Amino acid sequence: MTTTPEAPVISLEHAQKSFGAVHALEDGHIDLFGGQVHGLVGENGAGKSTLVKILAGVYRPDSGQLLIDGEEAIFDNAKQSQEAGIAIIFQEPTLFPDLSVAENIFVGVQPLKRFRRIDGRRMRREAATLFEQLGVGLDPDRLARGLSIADQQLVEIAKALTTNARVIVMDEPTAALAMNEVEQLFRIVETLRARGNAVLFISHRLDEIFAICQRVTVMRDGRHVWTKPIDELTVPSVIRAMVGRDMDALFPKVPTEPGRVVLKVDRLTREGDFTDVSFVVRSGEIVALAGLVGAGRTEVARAIFGIDRADAGSVEIEGKRLRPGSPSAAMAAGIGLVPEDRRQQGLVMDFSIERNIALASLDTVRRGGLVLRASERTFARDWALRLRLKYAKLTNPVWTLSGGNQQKTVLAKWLGRKPTLLIVDEPTRGIDVGTKAEVHRLLSDLAGQGVAILMISSELPEVLGMADRVVVLFEGRVMREFARADADEDAIMRAATGLVEEAA
Amino acid sequence: MTSVAQEQGVVETRSGSHALAEFLARFRELGIVLALVIVVGATTIDNHLFLSAANVQQILAGSAIIALLAIGETIVIITRNVDLSIGSVLGISAYATGVLYVHHPNVSLAVVFAVALAIGAVCGAVNGLIVTVGRVPSLVVTLGTLYIIRGIDGAWAGGNQVNASMLPDSFNRIGYATVLGIPYLGWIAIIAVAVATYAMRSFRTPRDFYAIGSDPDAARLAGIPVGSRVFLAFVLSGAIAGVTGALWLSLYASVDAIAGVGYEFQVIAAVVVGGVAIFGGSGTVLGAALGALLLYSINTALVVVNVSSFWSTALAGGLLLAAIAFDRLIALRVAPAMRTRRSARG
């Protein structure tokens, strides 16, 4: 294997970045050597993406030091990062769909001929040469629109080669690739390594990390955990480092006796998002849909609620087949959806608190086609009280509330309809600890009253504390299903990263 | 290695429907020329005077004005913005040119056009500054300046009019003289379109316009100075509208406070019919200019065959919708292909 060169090409030390009160990165640490592939792993929200964006010059760290060849550097924008020899391959590449492949590679650095005119012929020839070096047959003249993700990444990699980037950062490049495309990418990564480039490879798939990396860094909760050479590591040791944190007793799901089947999802498929997803949720039960970002959890929820239409399979509510692609049918059948992004999808931010609460229950506050302000207010006050909503005036716009109280408002909106099935997507994201516990208690109470709850959560402790059963998705497929007693962080993480258990 | 090459081959054939869409998009200009031939042919069969020298010259000169404005508008729309103020800029520049001649009858043509260009460029710079520094959508900004500039024009001109007798013949000639049967204005538009077409293809800055309109965030990540490029696009559009104002005066030979009212919509219609995507990123100056020629010809043709001018407006609207429907069709054909390809997971 390769010998470790003397000095790192680039090293980031004690990097810190906050957005308001959210600490996205508390202690980021990474050093990359030429001729080495460095793996970076961690759970959702561990701070990997923030670290990448600091390297890319998109974010400026609040504190910490970035050294390039031992000299301190500060990036104010993407251009400076590029000029320092860093190239980023994002999971979803950012190409210009209306420009040709060759133009995408050379944007801003097109080869010129006399009078600063672009030398189109040379540009195409050089692009073709690059693809030849990478061993792929892409047509430099075709438009980037419609290229597969794998091909788009190839274009980005070719772009990195033209700028003579020494450091190539790949942010979950394999997440959207097919098996053969992954093999091709690995071959290219190996080519880059052999050329002496430093490669930072981020992936949720540990088998990939073990296949191509020489060193691995684990991050957790915005902090660097450790960096070790690959031959000192095993899969379990990496997983332990990724999830190893104290379980707190914040999650009090009261055990209930599961009743009749409320939701039955049968072989639901939406091309490109998820495949052959089947599970049931009974009344009084909380079922967690676990998995990594991009595993298709939110997409499944959207398809159940009818926002997106599934290509195949069916959704049944209490034995009756739900009309696909119709949120109003889903609502009529008794489903409520608390979306992940409450500001964009859960609330009308400029509407008052009372109007938001009553929004899904207009039928009950309406007489002869007119919404009665008085009954709207009574209705809203009733629910605000039950959920212990903290507000100044019900007529204030909902954006004046804190994140936790906004989430309660969304919950109130759906509870007002007395749903039989409540789908909650990341119900406690960005909420302070106290309100979080309240939301948990609320969900637990609802289950106790016989509501079926489907909960999507990226927080493993939340999943383990709240769920009666856990369905783990990996790349759009159900990887495993756990009963409460069988679930632990290790097993869920293994399933979520695509490691198949010994005969379950 | 060979297996990889084979897989690539498979991917390429799967994109067959996409290749068709690409072909159609790239050869949009041919379609417009075809439509133009049909319009001219059909009208001429009904009334042979449609192809008389005088009428053809009138069409060329009139559509030249729209085509010139369309060059600037195309640049702005390609960056995913829009410039609604061009009609007002044309108006104020035309009036300023007239006033300049009234006060200085012997002023040289070079000075006249420099003044027109400067007026337009200043208006464009104001638009560009508010859009880029103020981060206000260009639709709103230029709607605002459309009224502001028109208001200034109105206050300045009042009820006054500058007419042909106050203008020197050296200036009026630009509007009526011809070379090889084609009016000066036609030649100016042809040369301007040729130069712009070449420049849009061959220089880095115009390629940046396309990149910005195609994906502004990606453009920022690629290190393109998005703000200054968008600013430049507005300055160019304004400057072109300014110069076109002076040319407009030479053609119509009289100007008052309402010169160029409503031109922005004729121009945007021409640009969209000409295949420039309204959300930026693609389209050509040539297409936009041909779109201008087509719409102007249709207008004239309907007059020649005695159709009410109300119908010609409706027809222009219909063409606009047809053009947008065509673009949408292409987008829809491409979208499922992309989704299927993404799902080809192991």
Q: Would you count the extended β strands of chain A for me?
A: 24
H/E topology pattern of chain B: HHHHHHHHEEHHHHHHH
Derived structural class of chain A: alpha/beta
Q: How many helical elements of chain B?
A: 15
The SS-based structural class of chain B is: mainly alpha
The most extensive interface between chains reads:
A-B, 46 and 44 residues
The overall strand count of chain B is 2
* Helical content band of chain B: over 70%
* Biggest β-sheet: strands ordered side by side in the sheet of chain B: 1-2
The count of helical stretches of chain A stands at: 17
Mean pLDDT of chain B: 85
CATH class of the largest domain in chain A: Alpha Beta
- Low-confidence spans of chain B: pLDDT under 50, at least 5 residues? 1-18, 336-346
**Largest sheet data of chain B:** 2 strands, antiparallel
Radius of gyration of chain B: 22 Å
Shape of chain A: globular
CATH architecture of chain B: Orthogonal Bundle
Work out the strand percent of chain A: 25-35%
Radius of gyration of chain A: 25 Å
The CATH homologous superfamily of the largest domain in chain A corresponds to P-loop containing nucleotide triphosphate hydrolases
In words, what does this structure look like?
The complex is a heterodimer of chains A (504) and B (346). Chain A has 504 residues and is of the alpha/beta class. Chain A has 3 domains: 10-95 and 147-243, 3-Layer(aba) Sandwich (Rossmann fold); 247-334 and 419-504, 3-Layer(aba) Sandwich (Rossmann fold); 348-418, no CATH class. Chain A is 33% helix and 26% strand. Chain A contains 17 helices and 24 strands. Chain A has a 6-stranded mixed beta sheet with strand order 6-9-10-3-11-12, sandwiched between helices. In chain A, strands 18-21-22-15-23-24 form a 6-stranded mixed beta sheet, sandwiched between helices. The relative contact order of chain A is 0.11. Chain B is mainly α and 346 residues long. Chain B has helices at 2-14, 16-26, 28-46, 53-78, 86-103, 109-132, 138-157, 169-176, 184-202, 204-214, 216-221, 226-252, 263-273, 285-304, 309-342, and strands at residues 178-179, 182-183. In chain B, strand 1 and strand 2 form a beta hairpin. Chain B is globular and about 55 Å long. Chain B has one domain (53-342): ABC transporter involved in vitamin B12 uptake, BtuC (Orthogonal Bundle), CATH 1.10.3470. Chains A and B meet through helix 2, strand 8 and helix 6 of A and helix 1, helix 10, helix 11 and helix 15 of B.
